[in-house]
Design a protein that fits this description.
The protein has one domain. It is of the alpha+beta class and about 70 residues long. The chain has a four-stranded antiparallel sheet with strand order 1-2-3-4, with no helix packed on it. The chain is built from two helices and four strands. The relative contact order is 0.24. It is globular and about 30 Å long.
Length: about 70
């Protein structure tokens, strides 16, 4: 199901980083995210709700500015 909060996300298993682009245009990289947590987000029906309950506030993060390329 499309999320009204999360536009897209990508997981990098080699660094355990989850990059999340929100519909606001803000982009964050969450660090130390286990692969199981990223897979659970991918498989969740309500991505925004799952993110808020299981990712936000649990892992260190930084906001990324500019073009992701």
């Amino acid at each position: 199901m499309p999320s009204t909060v999360i536009r897209s996300f990508a997981y990098r298993p080699e660094t355990a980083e989850l990059e999340v682009l929100f519909t606001t245009g803000r982009r964050y990289v969450y660090r130390e995210v286990p692969a199981e947590a990223a897979e659970a987000l991918r498989g969740s029906f309500a991505k925004g709700r799952h993110f808020n309950a299981r990712i936000r506030g649990r892992y260190p993060f930084v906001e990324v500015e500019g073009d992701p390329g």
